[in-house]
Write a structure and sequence with these properties.
Blueprint (H helix, E strand, L loop, with lengths): L14 H9 L2 H14 L5 H18 L9 H58 L2 H6 L2 H18 L2 H23 L1 H8 L2 H38 L1 H6 L3 H53 L5 H42 L22 E9 L7 E10 L4 E5 L6 H8 L7 E6 L2 E2 L5 H6 L1 E4 L10 H6 L7 H10 L3 H6 L17 H13 L5 E5 L7 H15 L3 E5 L3 H4 L4 E6 L2 E6 L1 H7 L2 H7 L9 H10 L12 H13 L8 H7 L3 H14 L7 H7 L4 H15 L1 H15 L4 H53 L3 H5 L5 H15 L5 H23 L1 H10 L1 H37 L1 H6 L3 H53 L7 H14 L2 H26 L20 E8 L10 E8 L3
Parallel strand pairs: 3-8, 3-9, 6-7, 7-8
Antiparallel strand pairs: 1-2, 1-4, 4-5, 9-10, 11-12
Membrane topology: Multi-pass membrane protein
Protein name: ABC transmembrane type-1 domain-containing protein
GO cellular component, one term: mitochondrial inner membrane
């Protein structure tokens, strides 16, 4: 991490990265300035709208419809010219906005994409660089979250979001400059309610944030309970703990449900207050505007200019605040990333420093070694350990569990620095050796073999990159693995699965041994390397390991007598200290600590296995084979598994989902629906499951329908206010005050409907989600081992169903479906009003308005098409990263950091290249969407003038009524588009979840059916044949006959 980091900021928060889109290069800086100059013109729309409003007010005053009036033609030409002049302003402004929007989107998106791609690469490299002590303190699950979720937050909070932040901020400033310039008194009147709205908003936001945090924590607890039970499913079944785990999960969900309902109430109150204040401010502004027009202080057009300027400025400020929030989240997420990137580990595996002796003999000297793990500094594991290993010797470390045997192996690999003392190789302290060089001369086979999710061949090549196929075959033979590998249809190309799931424990261990052998190390570390093998396999592998140990130093952490009987030296360790050193026979003769270990059955003598097996075969009524641990130890181990946490690998699916965009998540759901043979659900099927929530849904839907009429009615009130400004005297005051107060009525109606929608849709959604999660988990807990062996039912996938897919279903019945009712009613009423007042204008606007929808559809289709191609590559890079993090000890022992980083970067290249291409296409669509509004208004007003001039429309205000009715109503159509995207995901997710609910186990783990005789403990297998359902080609038991007597 040297040259690679020169383009990255140092010291904490990446402020230079956040600023980068603004001043990344000279042309980008100029682009930003040009964009903001253009965007500040946007508030001047309010000036054009005010001018046009005044034109129409004058048209009403002069009664253009009366063609016999004096000066009709002159006034008609003047009106025509003024409106056409304002239409041209719209066209000019639209062109400027198009160019500026394209430059903005291109500049920020391209820079952001490069920045995020660079951040991903550097962060993963930084993780690979850290020492094991750091990993002990940082869970791999949290690192995976940072790699995906945090980087996505940085991406969301930078790039075009920074452009939008500047854009909305400039609109806010520009809008209020215009408003205060035209009339500061009316502007202050419109702002009078702002402090109230800000205070209420801040208070509710604070409560919401607290509730959201609490909800997330409780859902995380529920998720942890589910994941814990799923990853230990066999242990749960063995203890009949299904009901216990289900009840525990339900209790956690209940707490989250209460918080979710509280959030729904808060959202309802927040929306009600917001709309009440907004519409009340409109009432007050028009009331005071009427007084100002009556007194001659202002014209009606000026009132409209101030109104539009303040409204646009306020809306822009609301949008800007959201961008500030997103940027703040990005800064926080980036801060966590840069803490890792900027950290230099105490044991730097990337460092080129240190000695690299060419000829290594393999002599090891452990001198007065003292050590405590960084996570438990108060517990001293090694207390002055001393022993030596001569060149070519095989030395065994023995002792009870926790005495420090494996710790010696970790220190020898320089995973940690000792508290005091030294480990020397050929007389050189390992602190002085280059880290990578040290680990390259040492081969390790650990107690728990860690394989990577690739082929058998690739796993062995991780031992040595330039190994030949013949060397791989030879290593497999030595490890007693060649025969079973040869039986696989794909041989060396056989995929081992996630964490080697497709291999048995013994097969995994033998592949790991072969991987160590191809390294041809000078020092071989065997940390209970044959613990997963049966007696026959172990004896063969042990012989191979003994042959491999010739001419190299071997350090063995022992668990069986066969692994240590022939050792040149045995070092007996008790409580972190060496208590005895000698050969097997010498130590037995002493009858000391080692003798006690042997008699306490800590070891199983392989030499005694065959006679015992023979006796077992000849005496069906008894089994005398010794065990490696007592039955009480086994129970404690199982209990530990039951209460233990989720294995880090099984959270892969959830972490990978963090990086998915919505369209990628939809593709995942489609793919899994097809893989599992499930059918997507429809709304009626979802509503069937939501039957208990129907009362809430009915109330919320009625509120949504009423809300749908608000904005069409608002357009009528608004048009009426403009027409009122054409009046004079007391009639102006009377009509102006009346229609102003109607906005207050609208405020009360809107506040009520918003509250009922948000609250009752929210409650219904929370209750449905909880019930589905609970039922799915309870049904899964009924399942047998066959169910969990199916890759479609892996703990990661089931966790995704519970934590992600079940909540996705609520999108079909929550506030989003309310938005659909709202939009449909709003558009329907808006069109009725528009066609009633001027069908010609309504027809034109209806004809050209879909251009916005077309641009959006083209954009989404293009983006989703590209995303589908990228998803697989991103998923592969994610798996590489998470697998490397989980198996970090194996990665560092094999010095795979650089190779895995290169592989990770390779899988990022295609998505990065496609994202840049998408950005180029996206800028034109963004520019089109940002500017089309201006061209539509220009065309609409120009056509409206034509209708008035040709006397097709007698009342000029009908043009405004028509245009405003469609404009204010059509604004809600975005909710429909948003809903159907979420609805599609909800139907797919529902299909997957409902299938899980309807599945029946082959062996029901919670049924009360079946006989319940008194059990005396005798066990008998009679000609048992068995094959795992997922591996039908391999017969595991072939007519097994076995009897185990009572006791």
């Amino acid at each position: 991490m040297t040259a690679d980091k020169e383009d990255l900021p140092r010291n904490g928060l990446p402020l230079s990265e956040i600023k980068e889109p603004v001043n990344y290069e000279n042309h980008n800086e100029k682009a930003t300035l040009l964009d903001e100059t253009a965007k500040e013109r946007f508030p001047f729309v309010s000036i054009i709208m005010g001018d046009i409003s005044q034109n129409f007010i004058d048209a009403v005053v002069f009664s253009f419809a009366n063609s016999s009036a004096s000066g009709y033609n002159e006034r008609m030409d003047d009106f025509n010219n003024k409106v056409i002049h304002n239409c041209l302003k719209y066209v000019y402004l639209g062109c400027i906005i198009f160019v500026a929007a394209c430059i903005q989107e291109a500049s920020f998106l391209l820079v952001c994409e490069s920045m995020v791609n660079r951040l991903r690469r550097h962060f993963f490299k930084a993780i690979m660089r850290q020492d094991i002590a750091w990993f002990d303190k940082n869970q791999s699950g949290s690192l995976g979250t940072k790699l995906f979720d945090n980087i996505e937050r940085v991406k969301e909070g930078t790039g075009d979001k920074i452009g939008l932040m500047f854009q909305f901020t400039s609109q806010f400033i520009g809008g209020f400059i215009v408003a205060f310039t035209y009339d500061w008194v009316l502007t202050l009147c419109m702002c009078a309610f702002s402090p109230l709205m800000i205070c209420c908003g801040a208070f509710i936001s604070k409560i919401m944030a607290s509730a959201s945090t609490e909800e997330a924590k409780n859902y995380a607890k529920a998720g942890a309970i589910a994941e814990e039970a799923l990853t230990s499913s066999r242990t749960v079944m063995s203890f009949n703990a299904q009901k216990y785990e289900s009840d525990r999960y339900d209790r956690a969900l209940k707490v989250s449900e209460k918080i979710g309902i509280k959030k729904s109430l808060l959202v309802g109150v927040g929306l009600a207050i917001t709309f009440l204040v907004i519409f009340s401010s409109y009432c007050f502004a028009f009331y005071m505007g009427t007084n100002f027009v009556h007194s001659g202080r202002l014209q009606g057009g000026t009132v409209m200019t101030v109104f539009f300027a303040v409204m646009m400025g306020s809306m822009a400020m609301g949008h800007a605040t959201q961008q500030f929030g997103v940027l703040g989240a990005a800064l926080g997420a980036a801060g966590a990333l840069y803490e890792v990137i900027d950290r230099t580990p105490d044991i730097d595996s990337y460092s080129e420093e240190g000695k690299k002796p060419k000829d290594v003999r393999g002599e090891i000297q452990v001198s007065n070694l003292r050590f405590s793990y960084p996570t438990r500094p108060e517990v001293e594991v090694l207390k002055g350990l001393n022993f030596t290993v001569e060149q070519g010797q095989t030395v065994a470390l023995v002792g009870s569990s926790g005495c420090g045997k494996s710790t010696v192996v970790s220190l020898l690999l320089h995973y940690y620095d000792p508290d005091s003392g030294d480990i020397l190789i050929d007389g050189i302290p390992i602190k002085q050796l280059n880290i990578e060089h040290l680990r390259n001369i040492v081969g390790v086979v650990s107690q728990e073999p860690q394989l990577f999710s690739t082929t058998i061949e690739e796993n062995i090549r991780y031992g040595r990159e330039d190994v030949t196929t013949s060397e791989i075959t030879d290593a497999l033979r030595k490890a007693n693995a060649y025969e079973f590998v040869k039986e696989f249809p794909d041989g060396l190309k056989t995929l081992v699965g996630d964490r080697g799931a497709q291999m048995s424990g013994g097969q995994k261990q033998r592949i790991a041994i072969a991987r160590a052998l191809v390294r041809n190390p000078r020092i071989l570390l065997l940390d209970e390397a044959t613990s997963a093998l049966d007696a026959e396999s172990e004896s063969i592998v042990q012989e191979a390991l003994e042959n491999a140990s010739k001419n190299r130093t071997t350090l063995v952490v022992a668990h069986r007598l066969s692994t240590i009987k022939n050792a040149d030296k045995i070092v007996a360790i008790k409580d972190g200290e060496v208590v005895e050193i000698g050969t097997h026979q010498e130590l037995l003769a002493k009858k000391g600590f080692y003798y006690e270990l042997v008699n306490a059955q800590v070891f199983v003598d392989v030499d005694d296995e065959k006679p015992k097996l023979d006796r077992m075969a000849s005496s069906p009524g008894s089994v005398t084979r010794r065990r490696t641990s007592s039955i009480h130890d086994e129970i404690r181990r199982l209990q530990s598994q039951l209460s233990g946490g989720l294995t880090n690998r099984e959270v892969l699916d959830e972490n990978a989902n963090a990086l998915k965009r919505p369209e990628e998540d939809l593709e995942r759901l489609k793919r899994e629906l097809e893989e599992e043979g499930a059918a997507k659900a429809n709304l009626f099927r979802i509503l069937k499951y939501a039957k208990p929530e129907l009362p809430y849904l009915i109330i919320a839907t009625i509120a949504a329908i009423v809300q749908g009429g608000v904005f069409p009615v608002f357009s009528l009130f608004f048009s009426q206010i403009i027409e009122v400004f054409s009046l004079t005297g007391d009639e102006l005051l009377r009509e102006g005050h009346f229609w102003s107060l109607m906005f207050l009525v609208l405020a009360v109606v809107t506040a009520s409907t918003m509250f009922f929608q948000a609250t009752f849709y929210g409650i219904a959604a929370e209750k449905l989600t909880l019930r589905l999660r609970s039922k799915v988990f309870r049904n899964v807990m009924r399942m047998d081992g066959t169910y969990f062996d199916n890759p479609c039912h892996s703990p990661g996938k089931i966790s995704t169903r519970l934590s992600s897919d079940a909540p996705t279903i609520k999108a079909a019945i929550d506030y989003r479906i309310g938005g659909v009712f709202n939009s449909v009613i709003s558009v329907a009423i808006g069109l009725i009003i528009a066609f009633y007042f001027c069908w010609q204008m309504a027809f034109l606007v209806t004809l050209i308005s879909p251009l916005l929808g077309v641009s959006h559809s083209i954009h989404m289709k293009y983006m989703s098409g590209k995303a589908n191609k990228d998803a697989k590559e991103m998923e592969n890079s994610g798996k590489i990263a998470l697998e490397a993090i989980e198996n970090i000890r194996t990665v560092q022992a094999l010095t795979l950091q650089k190779r895995l980083h290169e592989k990770f970067c390779h899988h990022l290249e295609r998505p990065h290249r496609n994202n840049r291409q998408k950005a180029i296409f996206q800028v034109f669509l963004y520019g089109f969407a940002a500017s089309i509004f201006f061209f539509i208004y220009a065309a609409s007003f120009r056509f409206g003038v034509y209708l008035i001039v040709k006397s097709i429309v007698s009342n000029p205000m009908n043009i405004l009524r028509t245009l405003f009715a469609i404009s204010f109503s059509a604004g809600s159509l975005g909710q429909v588009a948003a809903y159907f995207g979420e609805y599609a995901k909800a139907t797919f997710a529902a299909g997957l979840v409902f299938k899980m609910l309807e599945e029946e186990p082959l062996i029901d783990g919670v049924t009360n059916r079946g006989k319940k005789p008194t059990i005396n403990g005798a066990i008998e297998f009679l000609k048992v044949f068995f094959r795992y359902p997922e591996r039908q080609d391999v017969t595991v038991l072939q007519g097994l006959d076995l009897s185990v007597s009572r006791s």
